[in-house]
Amino acid sequence: MFYKDERLALFIDGSNLYAAAKALGFDIDYKLLRQEFMRRGKMLRAFYYTALLENDEYSPIRPLVDWLHYNGFTMVTKPAKEYTDSMGRRKVKGNMDIELTVDAMELAPRVDHIVLFSGDGDFRPLVASLQRQGVRVSVVSTIRSQPPMISDELRRQADNFIELEELRDVIGRPPREVPAESRSFAANGN
């Protein structure tokens, strides 16, 4: 479903892609991911969206954000909101859906194909709008996890569904052990 001469843009919902890869038991090698999609078409931009904890001295995602920024990704970040739930547990919220949607709509007239790395059903209206503007949309997520990480509505709306598990050999690497405190942020990052 890719053509060598088409202009591509990648839109990566960081916390959603992290959760899908984790559910499948591997980590994403972003250098390989970028190379793979540069091979598939003329990549104009690769956006990565994530919320960051501003008040922590060390954020486990900061090294990744810095590396992506220096290696050809357009980083879109905002401060995450921290709160305590009714059970007294520390939770982090940082939804980037609006930022991703606005950027995709602005770039739509300049691209032929958008690859959305997310399974979030909230993006179905975005995909439909992009398609009405003549942009083809591929969605990368997984149905092979329990439960599936992609909403059925989003999968049906997309022009092409790419199973993340099938990209494992191309863009994956074995997971590294993550400290317990960073797992809770990454899991609750959206």
TrEMBL record:
Question: Superkingdom of this entry's organism?
Answer: Bacteria
Pfam families in alphabetical order: NYN
Residue limits of the NYN domain? 7-165
Q: What is this protein called?
A: NYN domain-containing protein
The organism's lineage is:
Bacteria, Pseudomonadati, Pseudomonadota, Alphaproteobacteria, Rhodobacterales
